[in-house]
């Protein structure tokens, strides 16, 4: 009898978690047009600014790798509390106004139904597809967090060795395969010269193609910390060109180039460089997996009315 009571208690503890997971079509009954509304906002922005894909990919990553995918990165600082936005790695994150536009459109149709965390995830998916990447189904049902602390922002930097960077991913339940394919998001976007200047100054870095070094010296000779494309081939397309570039010693940032050289990651780089279909499949899988990191579901967190501020208590 006692054993049955213990088992029942465990079942009752687990049941709410089992019922409150992310799922496809989460808003089908509460806000049927949710995904199409987000998609329309992203498409309008993409038509005039194809760099928005890189911005949203970065925002999504920076959000999920702090407190999990809870939109804590969207909170504005106040006089009393500083938010994640003021942390060093987030000072150049952009695209917040697109999330605001999508959220405002959703609130006008389905008030307090769609979380800001889901808006980030959906918008990123849609921008990837518009850039020629895979379209992947996104489970939804995330809730928004009520904490945003700059001291918790500890993201892998561009100069970290592969092994140290992987520790950050491993802590979030990601594999080396996941890390390599997610860093393949550098197939779009730019890096400012300050992030790789040490690789092109003085004797430079022997792991970088000499022609690229010469090109970057020309770019970085300008004032105000100019930027260069991370992918020297198809800079606005989500494809496997980035992996072909780093295999040819044409990675800008140290971490990117080390992926092609390190014994733990170079095999994955080779496979993604050689197989566009494999890249698309694994990129979609890893994006969905990343979007599931430490999500708030059920009654946890909240559904913010304004993505930049917590709801009044």
Description:
The chain has helices at residues 2-19, 34-48, 52-64, 96-109, 116-130, 162-171, 176-183, 210-220, 241-247, 254-261, 266-274, 276-290; strands at residues 190-192, 227-229. With 313 residues, it is mainly α. The protein folds into two domains: 23-152, Peroxidase, domain 1, CATH 1.10.520.10; 174-290, Peroxidase, domain 2 (Orthogonal Bundle), CATH 1.10.420.10. A two-stranded antiparallel sheet has the order 1-2.
Kindly list the characteristics that best describe this protein:
disordered N terminus; 313 residues; Peroxidase, domain 2; single chain; 12 helices; Peroxidase, domain 1; mainly alpha
Give the strand tally: 2
What's the CATH architecture of the largest domain?
Orthogonal Bundle
Overall spatial form: globular
Q: Name the beta content range.
A: under 5%
Spatial strand sequence of the major β-sheet: 1-2
| SSE order, one letter for each helix or strand | HHHHHHHEHEHHHH
Concise structural overview:
The protein is mainly α and 313 residues long. It contains twelve helices and two strands; from the N terminus they run αααααααβαβαααα.
List the helices and strands and how they pair.
Blueprint: H1 2-19, H2 34-48, H3 52-64, H4 96-109, H5 116-130, H6 162-171, H7 176-183, E1 190-192, H8 210-220, E2 227-229, H9 241-247, H10 254-261, H11 266-274, H12 276-290
């Amino acid at each position: 009898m006692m054993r049955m009571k213990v088992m029942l208690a465990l079942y009752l503890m687990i049941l709410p978690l089992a019922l409150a997971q992310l799922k496809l079509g989460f808003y089908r009954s509460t806000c049927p047009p949710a995904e199409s509304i987000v998609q329309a906002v992203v498409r309008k922005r993409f038509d005039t600014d194809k760099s928005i894909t890189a911005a949203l990919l970065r925002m999504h990553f920076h959000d999920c790798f702090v407190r999990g995918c809870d939109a804590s990165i969207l909170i504005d600082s106040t006089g009393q509390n500083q938010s994640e936005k003021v942390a060093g790695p987030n000072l150049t994150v952009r695209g917040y106004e697109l999330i605001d536009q999508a959220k405002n459109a959703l609130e006008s149709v389905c008030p307090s139904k769609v979380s800001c965390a889901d808006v980030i995830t959906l918008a990123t998916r849609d921008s990837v597809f518009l850039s020629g990447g895979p379209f992947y189904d996104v489970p939804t049902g995330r809730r928004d967090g009520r904490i945003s602390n700059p001291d918790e922002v500890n993201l892998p930097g561009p100069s970290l060795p592969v092994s140290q960077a992987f520790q950050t991913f491993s802590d979030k339940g990601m594999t080396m395969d996941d890390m390599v394919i997610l860093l393949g998001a550098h197939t779009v976007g730019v890096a400012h010269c300050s992030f790789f200047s040490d690789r092109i100054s003085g004797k430079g870095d022997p792991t970088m193609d000499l022609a690229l070094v010469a090109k970057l010296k020309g770019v970085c000779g300008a004032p105000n910390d100019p930027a260069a494309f991370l992918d020297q081939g198809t800079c606005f397309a989500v494809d496997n060109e980035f992996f072909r570039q780093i295999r040819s010693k044409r990675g800008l940032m140290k971490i990117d180039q080390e992926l092609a050289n390190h014994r733990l990651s170079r095999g994955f780089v080779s496979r993604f460089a050689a197989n566009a279909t494999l890249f698309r499949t694994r990129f979609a899988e890893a994006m969905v997996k990343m979007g599931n990191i430490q999500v708030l579901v059920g009654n946890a967190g909240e559904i913010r009315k304004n993505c930049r501020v917590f709801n009044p208590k």
